Amino acid sequence: MTKTWFITGTSSGLGRLMVEKLLARGDTVAATLRKEGSLDDLKAQYGERLWIGHLDVTDTAMIRKVIDSAFSQLGRIDVIVNNAGYGLFGAAEEVSDAQIDRQIATNLTGSIQLIRAVLPYLRAQGGGRIVQVSSEGGQTAYPNFSLYHATKWGIEGFVESVAKEVAPFGIDCLIVEPGPTETQFAVGLDHARPLACYDNTPAGEIRRMLTSGTFEVKGDAARTVDAMIATADGEKPPFRLALGSTAYASVSQVLTERLRSLEEQKEVTFSADRAS
């Protein structure tokens, strides 16, 4: 059975690949992007099965307008893929106020507002699925990505709460957490102005790895998208899906350490309860 998908951030990377693969198998896709013309080749090939909308997710009014238009023209939309985003690279005190505002507005507030905008439509049609593209960075943290991590940890908490709110309406959620993947993510990084005092710190080491190309990237973009689509197609997908061996190793490590630390603190933790 064919489906209709709504996907943000489709100019390049995982978003573009997902559009290509879904159209090739016969589905209908509503794709949004900021860079107009990026999907003209697919539009010429697939015609009415590709609906294209111009969208800057930092503009809440525009989000609502595009969502209204997509549902009005396409009717039922089965899967919403919240994919638009980018990375801000720099130590916390290196990044500017404007860079912080833009990172949060795009990755966190934009994703929140898009989900809020689609919920009335999904409720009215009796259900649907929301796929939130996060990152292994939604559960782990690298130096120099503090603001990026703040947005990914934030959106994961938001989606986890929303999933419980909307489950009675037949709406479910899937958070996808890819590890480092061969896409244009690194090229699209917003770089802060570096401070020399961080040269010989973990932040400086990560900077040198990215500059020299020695930061290991194991993830394959096409295989990542294949796994996302296959999981989103499932009758009962997991709530979180880590993708890539790097994501598996890093998420497994931090969760294990977090649980161990919690158990070690058990006596102190329980001591905060009111006396019986």
Description:
Helix content is 48%, strand content 15%. The protein has one domain (4-248): Rossmann fold, CATH 3.40.50. A seven-stranded parallel beta sheet has the order 3-2-1-4-6-7-9, with helices on both faces. A two-stranded parallel ribbon has the order 5-8. β2, α2 and β3 (50-54) form a beta-alpha-beta unit. The protein has 276 residues and is an alpha/beta fold. This is Short-chain dehydrogenase/reductase. Keywords: Oxidoreductase. GO terms for molecular function: oxidoreductase activity.
Assembly status = single chain
% residues in beta strands: 5-15%
CA-atom Rg in angstroms:
20 Å
Distance between the termini: 58 Å
Structural class: alpha/beta
**Total count of helical runs of at least 4 residues:** 9
Tell me the total number of β-strands. 9
Q: What's the SSE pattern?
A: EHEHEHEEHEHEEHHEHH
Number of domains: 1
Q: Helix coverage percent of residues?
A: 40-55%
- CATH class term: Alpha Beta
The 3D shape can be described as: globular
Order of strands, main sheet, comes to 3-2-1-4-6-7-9
Biggest sheet statistics: 7 strands, parallel
Average pLDDT figure: 96
* Stretches with pLDDT under 50, minimum 5 residues: none
CATH third-tier fold name = Rossmann fold
Named CATH architecture: 3-Layer(aba) Sandwich
Question: SSE layout and pairings?
Answer:
Blueprint: E1 4-7, H1 13-24, E2 28-33, H2 40-46, E3 50-54, H3 60-74, E4 79-82, E5 88-89, H4 97-124, E6 128-133, H5 146-166, E7 171-178, E8 190-191, H6 202-212, H7 221-233, E9 240-243, H8 245-264, H9 266-270
Parallel strand pairs: 1-2, 1-4, 2-3, 4-6, 5-8, 6-7, 7-9
Helix pairs in contact: 1-7, 3-4, 4-5
